[in-house]
Design a protein that fits this description.
- By secondary structure, the chain is α+β, with helices and mostly antiparallel strands.
- The protein has a single domain, classed as 2-Layer Sandwich (Alpha-Beta Plaits), CATH 3.30.70.
- Helices cover 41% and strands 11% of the residues.
- It contains nine helices and four strands, in the order βαββαβααααααα.
- The protein has a four-stranded antiparallel β-sheet.
- A hairpin with a 3-residue loop joins strand 2 and strand 3.
- The longest helix is centred in the middle third of the chain and has 20 residues.
- The two termini are 29 Å apart.
Length: 233
Amino acid sequence: MARRPRLVLPAVPLHIIQRGNNRSCCFESEADYLVYLSLLQQYATRATCQIHAYVLMTNHVHLLLSSGRPDGPSELMRRLGQHYVQYFNRRHQRTGTLWEGRFRSCLVDHERYLLICQRYIELNPVRAKMVQDPASYPWSSYRANGLGEENLLVSPHLVYMGLGAHDAERRAGYRHLFAEAISEHLLTQIRHAGNSNSPLGSESFAEHVRARLGHGPLASRRGRPKVAQRHLP
């Protein structure tokens, strides 16, 4: 069966998920996380990708980014994957693939879903019961977006910038969003979109994506979505 074309549009946020092969560990030491983040910054710049949010979990990665080029995200993930796997295999004396096939992705409706998706990403360690507070997890963008910790990798989206007139007000407004849990309905929507390469947003957003891409009708969102595999955080 032919692969479904990846949906990518310039300047439209994209949620990317990449998992370890057979759910295997992708990060085994602090150095691994630091190398991955360094490579992510390097190749995001080359591919003109702006990283709005990220989280590095033990066996998978979530990124929320925008790019001025339709091929930017694929170029970023190709270069990042190749160079990180080379480093990881050399450091841990292993061979073979590290990642589970192609990365998964979905376009995100920035008007209604961008900050929801951003919270979803940064709350992964909390849902996984690794920490109680997202600020306690060092390998995500929460400390930059919520606390103002310097992080040259993170580029706030315009929707985030609209949370306040100055940095302190934006950070306070962003932290306030975390007081409300993400509903199970929204969690299911986010997981389904990421697993099926479907737009995350309203029906009008999905039609807007279809029109801009010049594709036929996108996969129907009617009915009960397929259950995401293992419903990992």
